[in-house]
Structures are given as C-alpha cells and as structure tokens.
Amino acid sequence: MWTAVCKYTQLEPGRGVAALVDGAAVAVFRLGDGSVHAVGNVDPFSGASVISRGITGRRADGTATVASPMYKDVFDLVTGRALDAPEVRLPVYAVRRHRGLVWIGPDVTSVSENDAELLTMATSAA
Amino acid sequence: MSPSLRKVLVVGHGMVAHRFVSSLLDHARDDGRPAPAVTVFGAEARPAYDRVRLSSWFDDRDPAGLHLDPYPDGAVEVVAPATVVAVDREAQTVTTSDGAVRSYDTLVLATGSRPFVPPVEQHTAPGCFVYRTLDDVEAIADYAQDRKTGVVVGGGLLGLEAAKALTSLGLQTTVVEFAPRLMPLQVDDGGAAALQARIAELGVTLLTGTRLDRVVVDDGGVACAVQAIRGEETVSVEADIVVFAAGVRPEDGLARTAGLDVGERGGIVVDELCRTSDHRVYAIGECALAADGRVYGLVAPGYQMAEAAAAHIAAASDERAFTGADTSTKLKLLGVEVASFGDAFGAAEGAMAATYSDSRRRVYRKLTIAPDGRLLGGILVGDADDYGTLRALVGEQPPAAPEQLLLPAGAAGAVKIGPAGLPDAAVLCSCHNVTKGAICTAIHDLADKGEGEVTPKQIGLCTKAGTGCGSCVTSIKSLIQATGSGGSSGLCEHFSQTRSELYTIVRRDRITTFADLLAKHGTAAAGRPAGAAADGCDVCKPAVGSILASLGGLLAASQGTGRKPHVLDGGQAALQDTNDHVLANLQRNGSYSVVPRIPGGEITPDKLIVIGEVARDFGLYTKITGGQRIDLFGAQMADLPKIWRRLVDAGFESGHAYGKALRTVKSCVGSTWCRYGVQDSVKMAIDLELRYRGLRAPHKIKMAVSGCARECAEAQSKDVGVIATERGWNLYVGGNGGARPRHADLLATDLDDQTLVRTIDRFLALYIAEADRLERTATWVERYEGGLDRLRAVLIDDVEDRGVELEALIAAHIEAYADEWRAVLDDPAKLARFATFVNAPEAPDPTVEFVPERGQIKPLLTLGRR
Ligand code: SRM
Ligand SMILES: Cc1cc2nc3c(=O)[nH]c(=O)nc-3n(C[C@H](O)[C@H](O)[C@H](O)COP(=O)(O)OP(=O)(O)OC[C@H]3O[C@@H](n4cnc5c(N)ncnc54)[C@H](O)[C@@H]3O)c2cc1C
Ligand code: SF4
Ligand code: FES
To answer: Which of A14, B33, B498, B580 has the fewest CB atoms within 10 Å, counting from its CB?
Structure first.
C-alpha cells in the first residue's frame, strides 16, 4: 500500500525527483514550506516522463504548482489539474513522511478535489 | 456641412499643414460626417515629411523614411510641386505659379519659414547652401563628394545639426557663431562650455564671438573660403562648402501681398483661433505670429496651432485655442543631450540659481529658483535624463533641495524624483497641457475597466498626453508602472521589480540566494501575506537564477574565497529548468542532447574521432548543428555523466547549448586560407568564444566573425557580429535570426583587437544589466533609450562613466570560469541528481524508446506533439 522511496532529506526544497512505484513513474516534490507532493511523472501533453524535472512554484492564492519542462504547462500539485486546461489532469498520489522517509500511497486523484483536507493531512503528516 | 468646411485650401505642405489636415479628417470621422474637400499646395515636390529629423537623412539616405503618414485614399487632393503666388480675398481664390486659379471657402496658410542668409558678399556663390529641406541635404551631400572643408554659419540648433552632417560627409568642419557661445537661445555660459567641450572632442572647430564677413571665391567664382572677424582680428577659414544656418524668418510674403496684417518683425498676425485679420483665412506654424506676440520656431507649438485651427474650422470649437506654448526643448546634438526649460536663464526678478558642473564628465546642470523657492526653469547639458520630471516641477516647490536634484544619479545625497513624486498639478505633458493628476485619473479609469494592461497609447487617446513631441512618454510609462496597471513591468506576482532592477539590487547588496532576495525584496516582504509566496514560481526562479549566475564571478571575487561559483550550487539548482539542471537539452521524448563546445568551429581530427566514438558507444544520433558544432541526441538522463566523463577526459567542455548564455562564435576560414581574407577570423572567434564561454545572460547570445566583407560567417545576423577590415574590425550588435530576423547595427568601425574586445565586454555587461528576462539583444538594442547613438556614446565614449563597472563584470566572469561539466563530475551531490528514479537509480526510463532511421536512431513517440 505505501512505498518508501527516499529519505526526506534527499529531497531538495523546490525540486522534484522521480520514483518507481508499482511500475508507475511518480514525481515527488518538497516545497519551500516543507510540504511534500506526489503526482504522475508523465506529462499528458507530450507523453514524456519528465514532470519531476519541472520548476515548482506557488501562486498568490497559495496554489502549489509545477511547470512541465516540455511545453511549460503549469499543473496544480494538489488537484493535478493543468491550470490552463483543467480537463487535463495528472494522477495525484497520497504521500507522507514517516521515520525520516518519504512514503508514496494510493492514487487519490478522485478525492483530491473534494477532500483537500485528507490530502493535506496525508502530505504534512510527519 | 458648415460653410467653412465646404472647400478648404491649404498653402504649404510641411509638418504643421500635415497635422492640420489629419486633424480635420479626424474631426469629420469622429462626428460621423463626410470628409471635407481639402486641397493642399506644396512647393516641395514630395509628400509631407518630418523636417525635425531632416539630419537623419544622412544615416540611410532614404527620404521615404522621413515621410509622414499618408492620408486615407482619396481623402485629400495634394498638388505638388505647386507654389501659390497670389491670394484674392475678395474673390476667395488663389493662383499658383503655373497660372491655375482655385477658389476656397476657408484658406489656411502654413508656409513655414525660410532660412535667413546674411547678405554678405558672394553669399549666393556655388558652394553656398542652406539647411532646411530634403532638396538642400541632397544637394549638400552631392556637392561634398571629393571636397574637404566646410564652414557652417550659425552655432544654434540648426548649425550644430548641419555641422554634424558635414562631419559625417568627411569634411573638416568649422562652426562660425556670432554670439560668444553656442546655442545662445537655449543655454548659458556654463552649459555652452560643457557642450563646446564635447563637440570639440568630435573634431569640429568652433569659432564663437566671430562674425562672418564674406564668402571668398576662387577664379571660377566658386566658394573656397570664408573671411570672418573675431574681435580686432580677421580670420580666414578654408571652405569648399558654406552652409548658412543662421536662423529663419517667417514665410509671410503671400500674406503681405494679400493685405493681411503682419507683425513688425514678420509673421502673419493671428488670434487665439489662428484666424488672420480676414476670418476666412487662418495661419498656423512657423509663418504665424501667435496671439501671445511670438513666432514659434518649434514643431510642438505649430501642432497646437494646427489643432486649434482644425477644431475651429470643423466644429466651431474654441476649446483648443492657442494662447502660447512652452518652448522647453530637449535635443540630442552630435550625440550630446541638451535640454532647456522654463525660465532657463533666471530672468524673473530675484531669481536665484543652483548649478552642478563636472568638467571631467562634461556635464552641466542648472536650476533657477524664485525667491519663494519655486522652481523656475533649468538647463541640462550632457545628462538630461530627468528633463521630463524637472520640467513638470516648474512653478512648484520641489520636494528636495535644488542642489540635491542636480547631483548625478548615484552620487551621495542625490535625489531623483520619479514622476510618481510629482504633485498632481504638475504639467507632465507640456505639448497638450496635461497634468499628472489628469494622467493618473485616466490610468485608474482604464484599469477599472479591467481590459488588460494600460498602455501609454491608451492614455494618449483619452488625454492626448504623449501625442505631441513624445518627450513625456517615459514619465507616463513610469506612472502606469507605479499604479501596477501596466501588467508586464514587474517580473511576476512575487517581485514587483523588473529583471534589470533585481539585477541592480543583487549586485549592490551582494545577494547570493533566491530565498534571501525573495525575503528582502519580494512582494511578500512589502506587506502582502508571507508564506504563500515563499516558493517563487517558474517565472522568477529561472530569471533570478540567471542573474545570480551572471553575477557569480563578481560575488565570488568580492567574498575573496577564491572558490569558483557553479550554476548548480546551493539553492540555485532548484531555480533552473531541466536543461540547466542537468546541463543538457531536453528532447521531445524525455531524452537529452549533448553539445560539446567547439570554439570557432575549429576541431582536430582526434577530437572528431572522440565524438564519433562516444556517439557510437552510447548509441546517440549525431548531427552537425547550425552553430558549427556537433549535437549528440538521445541520451538518457542517467547516462549524461558517463558521456561527459569521456568527453571531458578528451579535453571537451560544456557548450552551454542548454543555457541562456553564450552559445557559439561562428567563424569563416579567414586570412589563413581564404584568398580574400584580411584578418584571422578563426583566431578571433576562438578568442571570443573562450572569453565569454559560460557567461549567463537574459537570453542566449550568439556571435560570429567573418574574415572579410564577403561575410561568410553571417555575422550580421548575430547578437555580436565582427567583420574584418583592412584596418581592423567592424563591430555589429543586435542581430537576430529566429522568427523575427533582424540585421545587426554597425556600432563601430576599424577597431583594433583590444578596443574590439573591450567594446564587446561593455556591450554584453550592459545587456546583462539592463535587458528584460528572455529578451534577446535585438529587441533590447531596438528599444534602448536614445537609440544606437546613445548606446555608442555609452559603450565607446563612456559618457555615463560606466566602462570600469561593465568591464569588471566580464573580468570577474573570466576569472571565475570553470567548466560546468567537469565540476559536476567531481561532485557526488551533483551527480546524484542524474538518477532516473530516486529509488532505482540505474533503471532506464521505460518511456524513452527509439527506432532506427537512416542508419541512426530516432525517438519512438507515444503521444506525439500536441
Ligand atoms: C541544434 C540546433 C538546430 C540544428 O540542428 O542545427 C538548434 C536547436 C534548438 N534551437 Fe535553435 N538551434 C540551433 C541553431 C539556431 C540558429 C542558428 C545559429 O545559431 O546560427 C538560430 C537562429 C539564430 C538566432 O538565434 O538568432 C536558432 C534559433 C532558435 C530560436 C529563436 C530565437 C529567437 O530569438 O527568435 C529558438 C527559441 C528560443 O530560444 O526561445 C531556438 C531553440 C532551439 C531549441 C533549444 C528548442 C528547444 O527548446 O528544444 C532546440 C534545442 C536543441 C538541442 O536540443 O540541442 N533556436 N537556432 C542548432 C544548435 C546550434 C548550436 O550549435 O548551439
Ligand atoms: C534641420 C532642422 C532641425 C529641426 N529640429 C527641430 C527640433 O528638434 N525640434 C523642433 O521642435 N523643431 C525643429 N525644427 C523646426 C521644425 O522643423 C519646424 O518648426 C516645423 O517644420 C515647422 O513646420 P511648418 O509646417 O510650420 O513649416 P515647414 O515645415 O517649413 O513647411 C512649410 C512648407 O510650405 C511650403 N511653402 C512655403 N510657401 C509656399 C507657397 N507659397 N506655396 C506652396 N508651398 C509653400 C514650403 O516649401 C514648406 O514645404 C528643425 C528644423 C530643421 C530645418
Ligand atoms: S528550427 Fe525549430 S525544429 Fe529546428 S532545431 Fe530550431 S527549434 Fe528545433
Ligand atoms: S510633452 Fe510633448 S507629447 Fe507630452
């Protein structure tokens, strides 16, 4: 159910890594405020497995984002949606910190919008 | 249609007539009426043109470049060349020199001025010219061929422009001015001294306090010298050409013979609506003696008269009545800025003055102040950047002491008032008498409509501000930016500063991390909710990353640690897009390309073999690029360090194909092999490439060096292009290929190696300091304030005294340069970033697949391109 992928300290603030979880490539990010996010690594616009290599950011309304390095589409890290094309989505994974490790959990894309709280809990759980 | 509109005849087709006709058509269009029947007679055999920019004809000799906007098709009948010789006011007709007679309901005289030629002996001899029309400049250029010396009579605005023209034609030029100093109408002794010093540097000889006595002719009756009187002494100056630029007189002869009132010293008398003593006849522009009793020799007041007359004729409106104008001017003469505004000489009773003068930089600045402290006017020579704001403060109590306002930017105690600091009542646009308050109201109204960015153009449409001489547009721009309605001025929501402003802050405060800059200067620091913004975004992060990298060398030097900075050091790695992050170019299937540097395109057979072997061993697709080097495609991210280990061991370095940095310096084969080459272009290209390799900039930089004028390296399409000449190198800047190609501008000619390199150093450092993010040199050069002339003055004559600062940036970069790839290979922490999967570093990425094509590989695409 949950897979440990790396030490939390291996993650550089603002930068992503890719992890292999049950054969799927998952992009894992640590942001400036310490929170961790996990979304699918494959850019839906190009089919290339590169989301983890994009630049992270945060909008004034607090939305955490990553910009795909391929054609620079920006995705919401919490809902997985492309900001300019909300019908296009990255899968969103539950993620948590436990014993100094980062663990990737189930695909929670379907709940990621109505249950942002669950996700927040999942992501910031120490 | 009102009777006055039925048949409008205009005599003269200069700038003011053109504005009048355009305005008349606008009125009709705005009121939804059919256009009036307008006929214009012009004595010159050309469409109306921009006389103010007459001298720029010498730059490209293309008269069409000066033509004013044509009228809409069929709207106006222009008869040219046709001189009107008589007006019959009873019959309401005019007669042209070919005898044709035309009737009018309304007549507008816009006959301008004629040059004043002092009636000295032989003033009409062949070789004597005036400086007023395109025909004049064409004739001067024609006559100047194979001639050596020229004299300009008159040291005012016109005379100095004429002197510039003669020097550009290669003539040894002397200016003879009767007054004890240059530009006696605009500047005082101190200003003239600074101006004279700058002009003398350009090789023009100045004879002030000197009266022209006569033109001397040779046996053939052709001008060969002038004789002049200076104090007691008679001086002779050789002159193959004599240009009279000693002032103008209103062209009012037609009005005189028609019995209209003219002033004692010339000029057709008009009222505030620009009507002459016959109300069916108007006079506008330089031929008119305005209601305030003055004849204006500048175009802006002429335009105001045109608007006044058009409003009255079209709409019987007296709203635009012309009661007088400000004669403030800002000019650029021979590359020297000269501005004069308000009561420049302090003629008002009890006026006091504060002056700043720096004879080393040849700058002179003066403000005149009333006894109660209000600003009256001023003179600025050599540094007139804040002309717009200072002029707007006339009549106000300045917000700082005048001596502080005079100090150069950056000096201790200097106060620079931006337009935002001006009182609301200050008149920002003096052409149209628009106050700062009115402009700000317009900005807010437009912003409230929420139709996107507010632009100076929109402000002009609703207030007219900025639509006259244009000198206030920079102030309008900064007001828009101050209200945050301009959209693009700040970098992004995390920084309200432009890239260039951030560069200045980082350099000044020696900031070394993104986090520090964001904390101290981000919008969150200025009171917006913190935390939310702590991350920056994909706009500010790479932009700041690039600034930190550009300044890396300087910052390292100032810390004196002797450590070489690296683009991926510290938090900086997280600022970069994947290309910079893994020092390679991302390809469409998620693989990367590898481009080793091949300076100047020169490569040994051994090195070629190494590239071939590496490509073969790693299964990479190879291609010769458009930049004279070799690109190896299809590398997995995890293989990049292994590939580079082999390349670095063979002596290759990063080619920075991934960076906003110097890319390549292309070369042609040059004098070593080529039959026509005049310099060693390959060596120069290699030297330049090694000098600037790794230099980070707002966008990529490309260069090329050609060995002769045949230009096989295509240098004129590069950011920096160098072309060999018999005597050295010609330097071009601001070229671009890409989607909007631009030919580079010639910045300097016949430079020796050292001057060439120094000038390129300065050019690149200035571009890095001032351009916007992702702005190539081409657009930056194009919008550079003051144009190419100013850029040349800053880079070559160092008029802003920044040479040392600019060269220091490049020197520090060279000092700190180390190959980025070698440094990565030596650093386990950096190497860890190349793992495909953090929990399976050696596993290949299953989505990266290839299929064969033409004996090499190509990506197998799952989705293709959107
Ligand atoms: C490899 C190369 C094509 C080739 O096979 O020849 C190439 C390939 C790319 N060019 Fe280029 N350009 C290449 C020469 C050029 C040239 C010709 C030249 O340099 O002489 C030009 C026109 C000259 C110029 O830049 O003014 C050129 C104008 C562009 C532009 C348009 C720039 C502009 O200002 O309009 C872009 C887009 C950009 O930079 O934003 C671009 C962008 C790109 C990118 C980076 C597009 C991308 O984002 O993937 C390509 C990636 C290359 C890679 O993965 O290695 N490339 N590109 C050439 C590499 C030269 C080198 O050795 O470094
Ligand atoms: C080299 C130079 C530099 C200048 N620089 C500046 C500057 O920096 N700033 C500034 O404000 N001003 C400058 N001026 C002045 C500016 O050009 C004039 O103020 C402006 O052109 C006046 O416009 P106008 O239409 O009144 O007259 P003009 O432009 O002189 O136009 C009058 C036209 O009427 C024609 N004409 C005359 N009589 C007749 C007739 N009987 N029948 C038919 N046609 C006739 C003339 O041939 C001429 O084409 C400069 C002038 C020159 C020559
Ligand atoms: S022209 Fe277009 S397709 Fe060709 S290399 Fe340049 S960017 Fe790529
Ligand atoms: S001051 Fe001339 S347009 Fe505004």
So the answer is: B33
Q: What confidence tens digit (pLDDT) does each residue in B493-505 have? A: 788 888 999 999 9
Alpha-carbon distance of B428 to B419, in angstroms, equals 8
Cβ atoms of B656 and B681 closer than 8 Å: no
In short, whether B591's Cβ falls inside 6 Å of ligand 1 is no
Question: Which H/E stretch holds residue B445?
Answer: helix B436-449
Q: In what order do the strands lie in the sheet with B728-733?
A: B662-667, B701-706, B720-725, B728-733, B745-751
- DSSP strand pairing (B210-217 vs B205-207): unpaired
Q: How confident is the model over B350-379, as a mean pLDDT?
A: 90
**Per-residue 3-state assignment (H helix, E strand, C coil) for B143-189:** HHCCCCEEEEECCCHHHHHHHHHHHHCCCEEEEECCCCCCCCCCCCH
C-alpha of residue A89 to centroid of ligand 3, in Å: 28
The three-state DSSP-derived secondary structure of B364-403 is EEEEEECCCCCEEEEEEECCCCCHHHHHHCCCCCCCCCHH
Contact A19 B532 (CB under 8 A): no
Fold of the CATH domain A3-125: Rieske Iron-sulfur Protein (2.102.10)
**Contact assignment for B515 to A32 by CB distance below 8 Å:** yes
ipTM of the complex: 0.71
Residues of A in contact with B575 (CB under 8 A): 14, 55
Model pLDDT, residue A40: 96
pLDDT band at B73 (very low <50, low <70, confident <90, very high): confident
Q: In terms of Cα–Cα distance, which of B568, B545, B563 is closest to B641? A: B568
Sheet holding B233-238, edge to edge: B210-217, B223-230, B233-238
- Residue A6 and residue B839: Cβ atoms within 8 Å? yes
Q: Counting every residue, how long is chain A?
A: 126
Dist CA B492 CA B669 (whole Å): 45
Q: With 60 as the cut, is the pLDDT of residue B527 above it?
A: no
Give me the residue label for tokens 């023209």: B165
Q: What is the nearest CA distance from B439 to chain A, expressed in angstroms?
A: 29
Do B745 and B779 touch, CB atoms closer than 8 A?
no
Give the residues of chain A that fall short of pLDDT 70. 112-126
B450 pLDDT more than 70: no
Separation between Cα atoms, residue B310 and residue B25, nearest integer Å: 9
Phi, psi of B71 (to 5 degrees): -75, 160
What's the pLDDT tens digit per position in B605-625?
Answer: 999 999 999 999 999 999 999
Question: Of all atoms in ligand 1, which is nearest to the CA of residue B595?
Answer: 55
Instruction: For residue range B592-603, list pLDDT tens digits in order.
Output: 999 999 999 999
Q: Which ligand is nearest to the CA of B287?
A: 2
Q: What does the block give as tokens for B154?
A: 């008159």
Average pLDDT, chain B: 89
Please report, for chain A, the start and end positions of each structural domain, with discontinuous segments joined by +. 3-125
H/E segment holding residue B693: none
Largest pairwise CA distance in chain A? 38
- Say yes or no for a CB contact (<8 Å) between A56 and B578: no
